[in-house]
Amino acid sequence: MATGLRLSAVRFPMTLLFNQIFVLNLLCALMAHVPSREFIFTSAPFPSCHASTIVELRDGGLMAAWFGGTQEGARDVAIWGSRRVANRWSVPSLLVREPNVPTWNPVLFHTRDGRLWLYYKFGPSPETWSAGRIWSADEGQTWSQPEHLPAGLYGPIRSKPLILENGTIVSGTSVESYRSWAAWIERSTDGGKTWTKFGPITVPEGERSRGSAPSEDTYGIIQPSIVRLDGRRLRLYARSTSLIGKICVADSLDAGLTWTPARPLDLPNPNSGIDAVALRDGRVVLAFNNSDRERTPLNLAISEDGEHFRVFQTLEDEPGEYSYPALIQGKHGDLHLTYTWNRKKICYVRIPLSGVPQ
């Protein structure tokens, strides 16, 4: 009897220990699939911010940039940035300020030579802006002086460009004119020294949305995000005005030299920025506002063919503005995303690759 009691007393703690280990392992496995989220800053020397961009650094760290100031379009709006090293974001630092005019839409990316570039726009409005750029040889710790680009050349207008295996830059850009928007492609084979342009890429007028607002009289697409589907086949995904009301796509079969006209997908677009990335296994992830009118909710969708998407993650669904996502895949496979949070903060999200459904 005493021996039996002693054996039970030994078995019970061991069983409890194994149960605790099992639960801990289960929680760890579940957490490995859960996105992590944080604000890049909680206080800053500007009340309003928007249009972030993100890039992975050579050491595995991250850098983000955005425009910030009194409000979009104000003369004090400048380009700000932060580096994430050892799992912490640095205090926002001023990267570019143009005298007496606002700056807009920074875009960070590396060229094949390892140089880190930041392209941006500056001027009174998107209809009248010009483009500038700076570069860094030490992963964003120090920067060159701004270089202003010739009229009509913009570089990547909002989303990261596609860098082909041979180093060619395929950059999605666009022009916003009176009552007319159009996408263009700027292509460089020498690291951005010289460029060729293709366009305009437009949507035929027959694709006007039946539910478009009567007061909406601007028609077209802007801010294309480019992915490689296979071989020399590329696809761009673009924002549209409410007269179209859908995310639009156009295709290239010759690595970006020529492009088809654009057409709408069966995905809504409330006239807001989107971003896309082709995963290394060929699938395409799209970040967008799954709404006809509002910049909420903010969602992620997955596609095996770049054509048919299913939503797998809702990042935000409260009232407000959660917009202009910037999306990349890191070298270890995880997705890294930044977006505007109510024009007050920039939010960063890491999505483990294991959390992206097959």
Q: Main traits of this protein?
A:
about 350 residues; mainly beta; Neuraminidase; 2 domains; 5-stranded antiparallel β-sheet; 4-stranded antiparallel β-sheet; 1 helix; 25 strands; about 10% helix; about 45% strand; globular; disordered N terminus
Bulk shape: globular
Structural class by helix and strand composition: mainly beta
- Count of DSSP E strands? 25
- The third-level CATH topology of the largest domain is Neuraminidase
How much of the sequence lies in strands comes to 35-45%
Helicity level: under 10%
Average pLDDT taken over every residue: 92
Structure overview:
By secondary structure, the chain is mostly beta strands. The chain folds into two domains: about 30 residues; about 325 residues, Neuraminidase, CATH 2.120.10. Strands 2, 3, 4, 5 and 6 form a five-stranded antiparallel sheet that branches. The N terminus is likely disordered.
